[in-house]
Amino acid sequence: MVYWYRNQNAVSIASASEDGELAAQAAKRFGWLTARGSSSRGGRQAYRAMEDLVKQGHKGGLVADAPRGPRFVSKMGIIYMAKRTGIPIIPVIWSADRCWKLKSWDRTIIPKPFARIVTLFADDFIRVPADASREECESYREQLDNVLNHIMYQADHFFKDSKATDPRQIQVPDPVPLPD
């Protein structure tokens, strides 16, 4: 996604850790700005910095499930960011046919050289009204999880389904089984 949105004045949050420094430097090479912080150190300041940049017109990108996990469960930060800025959430997922899987909490994947990559955007944006209550925000968070898990299943199965020419054609079981 960093490459896809390269040189488009985008901003994201990168952890204040050494790993976050690697991510921030990689993002910077593609023209991204990064606000540095995480849920364990400097997160509130990074969130506010990103919010200010988004309000100034920068595109924003967040990993929805955050470094403390659990995986596949988004945090309220992305919902509150959408509520406070008025910017809709555009759920997006990508997958690769050949990749390395890190042993990190989120099983980050890194495409191998010459891997094919598929990117799926949700059919609809998620707009969180400025006056949304805490309960309504939780409902939007659940909606985001459902949409992301749905398109993640399609992206992850696209290269395994030899008949699929479009990942959106892949039927998704209900409930969506989550990967290991």
List keywords for this structure.
180 residues, alpha/beta, three-stranded parallel beta sheet, two-stranded antiparallel ribbon, 4 helices, globular
Give the number of DSSP strands: 7
C-alpha Rg (nearest Å): 16 Å
What kind of sheet is the major sheet?
Answer: 3 strands, parallel
SSE sequence, one letter per element: EHEHEHEEEEH
Strand content: 15-25%
Measured as a percent range, the helix fraction is 25-40%
Strands of the largest sheet, in order across it? 2-1-3
Structural class category = alpha/beta
What average pLDDT do the residues reach?
89
Instruction: Count every helix, treating DSSP H or I runs of 4 or more residues as helices.
Output: 4
Shape: globular
In whole angstroms, the N-to-C terminal distance is: 22 Å
Outline the low-pLDDT stretches: none
